DNA sequence: CTGCTTAGTTATACTTCGCAACTGTGCGTG
DNA sequence: CACGCACAGTTGCGAAGTATAACTAAGCAG
C-alpha cells in the first residue's frame, strides 16, 4: 500500500483536493460562493483593502476580483470608496450586513471540520496543527 | 490572535484553501480544466468507470459529470460505451491520447509541490505524511 | 502638455456546478 | 404480458468563478 516516503507530493495533493471538495459539498445552500465569502472574511479580518490587495490574496486577476466585488456590492455586503490619498485606488470595506455574514460563514465553514477533529486524539490534532503551519508556509513560499 | 490550538478547524481549513489555490495557479496546462483532468486521472488509475462512479468520486451530480465527459469526448480524450451487462450504464474509458494527457498532468500536478517538499526536513515530511493520512480519513468519513 | 505607469472596470468566453425536466433501460407485480 | 416504478444518463438553464483583452481614469515624470 502507501509507503509514506513513496510519493508524498501526490499523496498530499490528493488528500488536499479530497478534503477541499468535501468542504465545498458541506457548504450550506443560500450561502455566498467561495470567492465571495473569502473576500468578506479577508475584509472582516483586515479592515478595508484595495482591489489589488484582495486579488493578490486570492491569487486571481484584478478583473476577476472586480466582478466578485460587484456581486458583493449588489448584495449589499461591501462598499466601494475611492482612496482619498490615491484616486486610482478603491477601498473595499464590509457593510454591517457583510461583517455579520462573514462571521456566520466562517463559523459554519468549519463546523463540520471541527466535529471531525473532536473525534481525533490529541496527538493527531497536534500533527494536524503542525501540518497546517507547514502547508501554509509552502503555500506562501 | 492566532492561537493554533484554539481554532484548529479554521486554521486547517484556511491552510488547505490556501495551498489548493496555489495548486490551481501552478498548473500550466491550460488545455483542460481541473474536473476534466481529475476524470482522466481516475480513469487512468482504475480503468473504465461508469458515469455515476465518476460523479461520486468527484462528489458532483451526474448532470455535471455528464457535461465534463462531453467535453472530454469532444476533445478525443475518452470514449463512451454502453455497458453490455446493463444497458442503462455508460462505461467511460480513456483513449490513448487521454491516457497520455493523464500521465503528463499527473506528473506536472505535483512537480511544484515535490520541489517544495524536498526543502523540508525529514521530520517535517513525516508530519505531512501523517497529516495526509488523517486528512484523507476525515474527508472520506 | 506629453507620455508612461498604475489601478480598476467592463466585455467576452470558457469551465464547472446544481437543479430540473426529460429519455431510455431494467425489473418486479398483478 | 402490461403496467408502473426505480435507476442511469442526458440536456437545458442559470449562477459562480476565472482569464484575457480593451478600455478609462488618476498619478507622475520630463
From TrEMBL, chains A, B:
Residues 5-140 form the HTH marR-type domain. One of its GO terms (molecular function) is DNA binding. Keywords: DNA-binding, Transcription, Transcription regulation. InterPro entries: HTH-type_Bedaq_tolerance, HTH_MarR-typ, Tscrpt_reg_MarR-type_CS, WH-like_DNA-bd_sf, WH_DNA-bd_sf. PROSITE patterns: HTH_MARR_1 (PS01117), HTH_MARR_2 (PS50995). This is MarR family transcriptional regulator.
Amino acid at each position: 500500500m502507501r509507503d509514506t516516503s513513496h510519493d508524498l507530493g501526490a499523496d498530499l495533493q490528493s488528500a488536499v483536493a479530497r478534503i477541499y471538495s468535501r468542504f465545498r459539498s458541506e457548504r450550506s445552500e443560500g450561502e455566498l460562493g467561495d470567492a465571495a465569502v473569502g473576500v468578506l472574511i479577508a475584509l472582516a479580518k483586515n479592515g478595508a483593502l484595495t482591489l489589488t490587495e484582495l486579488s493578490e490574496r486570492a491569487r486571481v486577476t484584478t478583473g476577476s476580483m472586480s466582478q466578485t466585488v460587484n456581486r458583493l456590492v449588489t448584495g449589499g455586503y461591501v462598499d466601494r470608496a475611492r482612496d482619498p490619498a490615491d484616486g486610482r485606488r478603491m477601498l473595499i470595506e464590509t457593510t454591517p450586513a457583510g461583517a455579520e455574514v462573514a462571521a456566520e460563514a466562517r463559523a459554519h465553514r468549519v463546523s463540520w471540520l471541527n466535529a471531525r477533529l473532536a473525534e481525533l486524539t490529541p496527538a493527531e490534532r497536534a500533527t494536524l496543527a503542525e501540518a497546517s503551519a507547514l502547508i501554509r508556509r509552502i503555500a506562501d513560499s
